[in-house]
Design goal:
Radius of gyration: 28 Å
Helix content: 40-55%
Structural class: alpha+beta
Largest sheet: 7 strands, mixed
Strand content: 5-15%
Distance between the termini: 64 Å
């Protein structure tokens, strides 16, 4: 069977999903060269891939029952199949739901509760259809929670409307709740039957069946991020060597750090088309033989990025970036050897960097005392998500479920304006939250918190669009913004990196979720207002002075964290050569938090 024959056969299928799901999925497996499910042998240990996998469910009253998973593959997915129908009047409306764009001005018919209850068919594109698929996803989530203890929670849920579409949801965090849309194809979590003619889509299905975790975007991001941080680390090490060999003329460590931060943001801007394609990489190649021309050209470019408008350096109009990244636009002379490393980094794709760990890796790369352990001392994203989920995500998800239930009840009772208002009020609540990390380091917790709130915001917008047919443009007062995420950090360089990665995260979210391929964020690209304050989170003081010894010289102590290898034991021991002043504080007071 060719893809065209498969599509032709199943597009016209009618009947109930109980009748069609087995043959449909068997044909799909044969079409794609996938194994077909085996028999049920009486337990999951010997039946890892089966139709109608039984799970024992206990309802809220404690009544047990047995339900059946339409298709289960261990460590891969739970698939729940449904079957709606398409009529001519609903076809355009169905397409609108998935494109997000109205095709023609019209007022689609609404299905009342009574109508839905008195018909055995769900019409694609009508109000009840979206809820039909959402309920199927919830049903599959319930199955995931009720699998026997011997079975791991599968990373994927697939909802199939037989003969029409597949929807993919992921839970790569291995928790029993909250499967999220997986952008698997064309930045969408949906694959249509017609997409199966594309060999790339067929390959995606094979990965779903055999190696679903290869589709985890964070795994790919982590690998890319480590590689990019190491490239910058090698460049920073070169500058360190310059300082050791020429301490009087080489740029200071903080000057180098600021220079590299501006470089990497410019590389990112180039890779997401905020700057003309390869324009920064080309500029670096053109001036690399002359260190002073490097400094002059980059200084001019960053001044132009700060103000926006026509860029004589790039000979194009560029957006206004603004922000503290380019407020000080000075660049430093860079030798040809160093430029080769910089160009090597610029040629990489920065659009996939993971801001939640990049900040820590970058700080390690820029810190001479930490570079020997580069990549070892950062909080893995999974640990960050565990805390953010418990403190922020789960309470807000519970609140949203209550709002969604109330909105659904209002809509079914004919009170759609009230349902829409409930959802917009919840969006306003998300946009009014303030989240503070009072020891934010390079911002990894703030970045993940921002992403989780934006994900929840997207769920609300999807419900408004697909269930309530509301496409009202989102007001700024209803939109989650980076300025809601606040940090305090005593290390100046870490604070600058935290601000950087928070803005990178916002840009990344925009480009991954835009509906128009040529859309760009509003100017200035970096929003006004400071999210990260560089100050002590515990104390304020009027003044501080060094403590003097009997010889009237300032007293110092070990800095508290720089280590070296003991020449005898090989273990890490304090490096006493790294010292800080011992100071006394005048009028110390508890610090106020934003």
């Amino acid at each position: 069977m060719t893809p065209e024959e498969f599509i032709s056969k199943w597009k016209v299928a009618q009947g109930r999903e109980e009748t069609n799901s087995g043959p449909f999925l068997t044909d799909l497996c044969q079409l794609l060269g996938l194994p077909t499910p085996g028999p049920w042998t009486g337990d999951f240990a010997t039946s890892p891939y089966i139709f109608e996998a039984p799970v024992n469910i206990t309802d809220s009253q404690g009544n047990p029952s047995t339900k059946k998973i339409d298709l289960y593959r261990r460590d891969c997915f739970i698939l729940e199949a449904k079957q709606a129908t398409t009529d001519d009047s609903a076809a355009d409306s169905a397409l609108e739901l998935f494109s997000g764009q109205p095709l023609t001005p019209k007022s689609p018919k609404r299905s009342t509760t009574a109508t839905r209850r008195n018909t055995s068919r769900i019409i694609r594109g009508r109000a009840g259809w979206r809820k039909y698929l959402d309920d199927a996803k919830k049903q599959a989530e319930g199955y995931a929670r009720q699998l026997p203890a011997s079975e791991k929670i599968p990373p994927l849920i697939i909802v199939a409307d037989i003969g029409y579409i597949f929807e993919f949801y992921h839970n790569f965090r291995d928790t029993a709740r909250a499967y999220e849309p997986l952008p698997i194809w064309n930045n969408s979590h949906t694959i249509t039957l017609d997409d199966l003619t594309n060999p790339a889509v067929a390959n995606l299905f094979r990965k779903v069946w055999s190696e679903p975790r290869s589709l985890d975007p964070t795994a790919r991001q982590t690998s890319v991020t480590r590689d990019l941080a190491q490239k910058l680390g090698r460049l920073a090490a070169d500058f360190d060597r310059d300082r050791r060999e020429n301490p009087d003329t080489a740029p200071a460590a903080d000057t180098v750090a600021d220079f590299l931060i501006r470089c990497l943001f410019t590389m990112y801007a180039e890779d997401v088309s905020l700057l003309p394609e390869k324009s920064f990489t080309t500029l670096l190649a053109e001036v690399k033989e002359d260190p002073q021309q490097v400094a002059d050209s980059l200084t001019a470019l960053w001044r132009e990025m700060n103000s926006g408008g026509f860029s004589p350096t790039l000979r194009r109009r560029i957006p206004r970036f603004n922000g503290r990244v380019f407020a000080s636009a000075s660049a430093i002379p860079v030798t040809t050897h160093r430029m080769d490393r910089l160009i090597e980094a610029a040629r990489c794709d920065w659009s996939d960097v993971d801001p939640s760990i990049f900040g820590s890796l970058l700080e390690n790369a820029l810190d001479t005392r930490e570079r020997s352990a580069q990549g070892a001392h950062y909080t893995p994203r999974a640990y960050v998500e565990r805390l953010v989920r418990a403190t922020i995500e789960e309470p807000l998800e519970t609140e949203w479920e209550q709002v969604k239930s109330a909105a659904t009840a209002d809509d079914e009772a004919g009170r759609r304006p009230a349902a829409v208002l409930d959802c917009h009020n919840f969006l306003r609540r998300l946009a009014s939250l303030k989240i503070l990390d009072p020891a934010c380091g390079t911002g990894n917790f703030l970045v993940v918190a921002y992403e989780r709130l934006k994900t929840l915001e997207a769920q609300v917008l999807r419900f408004l669009r697909e269930n309530l047919e509301d496409r009202t443009p989102l007001a700024d007062t209803h939109r989650v913004k980076t300025t809601q995420f606040l940090g305090l950090e005593v290390n100046p360089r870490a604070a600058r990196i935290a601000e950087l990665v928070l803005n990178l995260s916002a840009l990344q979210w925009f480009y991954r979720n835009r509906t128009e391929p040529d859309a760009h964020p509003p100017e200035p690209i970096i929003p006004e207002g400071r999210s990260i304050e560089c100050r002590d989170a515990v104390l304020t003081w009027a003044d501080k002075k060094p403590v003097l010894g009997e010889d009237l010289k300032p007293r110092t102590r070990w800095d508290g964290f720089t280590m070296k290898k003991d020449p005898v034991t090989g273990r890490d021991v304090p490096d006493d050569s790294f010292r800080v002043l011992i100071e006394t504080y005048t009028n110390p007071q508890p610090a106020d938090w934003p």
